[in-house]
């Protein structure tokens, strides 16, 4: 098992290095080959322990929906430094502790049991996903990871990939920031229309590119690789429309920090399994689970839960199943048993 993982990690390292070399031809990044090589190796090591309507009326409706639909809860309007500070303070109040100190689940043992069961079910699928050099977990540059996080907001990963592929076709690379910025918002809107919410996401991407270039004179955020979690979160959330979920995604994908991100699948399963209060928002659920899930389980457990949310009859979105999740049943059954290694005497 260890040898197989090592081989896969080595393969991913080589793929990332080749892919990143292509990205650097299009991007305005000044990251050196030596720095990139060290970073890719570090990432590989950390992973070894992720009917189209054609009528004009339909297109008009789709455009209208895209303009009015909001991306929640990760797109707060922030117009100035005071607004950014307010957004930061709201999140950081529970940055290192759960907002639900009297809510007892999940326990460490619940997390470990769920991890062990889900590993048997989904590890092969998750490892296969990691083989894809376009998967977010393999992105080595911080700004690139942030742009992918924006494209993946409020949509499925398949839709996000459609938008990314379209950007590659149009600009030569989805990270060709000179070409994207020079082409203007209308061109980008048409390019990422296939991914949904194209007007909204264009606004966010252009806003980020404008602000990064204004602050640093280039499109590069790689200084955050050496920042503390708090400093990285504070800067990422200082960008207009970027909230804690997108910032957490970048922390996990690119900065390789042990933080637990809650997407739609994880939020839904947390509710079904009793891992969050019923009234908890996704943002507060993320704060809660990040605080209580053991650090060594966070990375893979996140991907296992996503895969489970896609495939489990009881846990997937819109399910009408009344029998319940077999994994959750197994966890509850094992919780009734005495943990192995404990003496029978009290």
TrEMBL record:
<dbReference type="GO" id="GO:0000702">
    <property type="term" value="F:oxidized base lesion DNA N-glycosylase activity"/>
</dbReference>
<dbReference type="InterPro" id="IPR011257">
    <property type="entry name" value="DNA_glycosylase"/>
</dbReference>
<dbReference type="InterPro" id="IPR003265">
    <property type="entry name" value="HhH-GPD_domain"/>
</dbReference>
<feature type="domain" description="HhH-GPD">
    <location>
        <begin position="151"/>
        <end position="311"/>
    </location>
</feature>
<protein>
    <recommendedName>
        <fullName>HhH-GPD domain-containing protein</fullName>
    </recommendedName>
</protein>
<feature type="compositionally biased region" description="Basic and acidic residues">
    <location>
        <begin position="59"/>
        <end position="75"/>
    </location>
</feature>
<feature type="region of interest" description="Disordered">
    <location>
        <begin position="1"/>
        <end position="90"/>
    </location>
</feature>
<dbReference type="InterPro" id="IPR023170">
    <property type="entry name" value="HhH_base_excis_C"/>
</dbReference>
<dbReference type="GO" id="GO:0006285">
    <property type="term" value="P:base-excision repair, AP site formation"/>
</dbReference>
<feature type="compositionally biased region" description="Low complexity">
    <location>
        <begin position="8"/>
        <end position="21"/>
    </location>
</feature>
<dbReference type="Pfam" id="PF00730">
    <property type="entry name" value="HhH-GPD"/>
</dbReference>
């Amino acid at each position: 098992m260890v040898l197989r993982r090592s081989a896969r990690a080595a393969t991913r390292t080589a793929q990332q290095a080749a892919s990143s070399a292509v990205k650097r031809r299009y991007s305005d990044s000044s990251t050196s080959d030596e720095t990139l090589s060290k970073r890719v190796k570090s990432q590989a090591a950390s992973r070894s322990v992720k009917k189209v309507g054609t009528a004009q009326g339909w297109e008009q409706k789709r455009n209208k929906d895209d303009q009015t639909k909001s991306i929640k809860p990760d797109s707060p309007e922030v117009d100035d430094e005071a607004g950014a500070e307010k957004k930061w303070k709201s999140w950081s109040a529970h940055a290192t502790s759960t907002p639900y100190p009297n809510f007892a689940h999940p326990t460490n043992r619940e997390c470990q049991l769920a991890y062990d069961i889900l590993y048997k079910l989904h590890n092969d699928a998750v490892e296969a996903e990691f083989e894809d050099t376009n998967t977010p977990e393999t992105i080595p540059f911080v700004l690139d990871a942030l742009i992918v996080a924006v494209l993946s907001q409020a949509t499925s990963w398949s839709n996000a990939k459609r938008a990314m592929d379209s950007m590659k076709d149009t600009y030569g690379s989805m990270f060709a920031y000179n070409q994207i910025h020079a082409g203007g918002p209308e061109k980008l809107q048409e390019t990422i229309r296939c991914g949904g919410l194209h007007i909204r996401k264009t606004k966010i991407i252009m806003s980020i590119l404008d602000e990064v270039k204004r602050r640093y004179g280039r499109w590069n955020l790689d200084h955050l690789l050496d920042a503390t979690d708090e400093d990285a979160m504070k800067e990422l959330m200082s960008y207009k429309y970027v909230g804690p979920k997108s910032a957490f995604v970048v922390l996990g994908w690119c900065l390789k920090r042990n933080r637990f991100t809650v997407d739609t699948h994880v939020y839904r399963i947390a509710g079904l399994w009793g891992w969050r209060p019923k009234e908890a928002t996704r943002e507060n659920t993320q704060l809660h689970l990040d605080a209580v899930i053991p650090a060594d389980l966070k990375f893979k457990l996140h991907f296992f839960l996503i895969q489970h949310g896609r495939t489990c009859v009881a846990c997937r979105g819109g399910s009408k199943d009344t029998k319940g999740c077999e994994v959750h049943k197994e966890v509850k059954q094992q919780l009734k048993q005495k943990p192995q290694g404990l003496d029978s005497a009290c």
